[in-house]
Amino acid sequence: MTAEWIGLILDCALIAVVGAGVVQATRLVIQLRDLRASRAEMERFVREFNSAVVRAEAGIKTLRTTARESGDDLEKLVEKAVMVRDELNFIVESADGVADRLSVSASKVMHENTARASGKGEDSASVEQRGNPKPTIISSTASSRGEKAAMSRAEQELMQALKKLG
Question: How is the chain split into domains, by residue range?
Fold first, then answer.
């Protein structure tokens, strides 16, 4: 009887071990199925990620090209602005010189008129009868040939600057 009991205990132990093996095998099959599904999802994710990377690289290339073109355009605009600024500075300096010469000439004409009126003893009625001489400031400022050449050179440079801009 002891032999029967030992056989029965061994049979129960063998059934328990086989049952545990079946449970473990079932769990392993479920994990393998989940792993295959995860692998398929991972492959899909990698494909989508790869296409996103390709699109991003194309976008970066486009951005670089656009930035380069915009930079070139901006650089050209800055160069033009510097050129226009320099030309405007030249024009302002020339205009200041002309204004100074006009001021000096106008004050000379006014001084000559007052000197004539007071120096000859003429009264204001005779000055009014004769009429005030109309000062031609441009001709009085350009009385010498050197000044005429300077003004014409300045005018020529101004015209050239305007042609460049136009």
Answer: 41-165
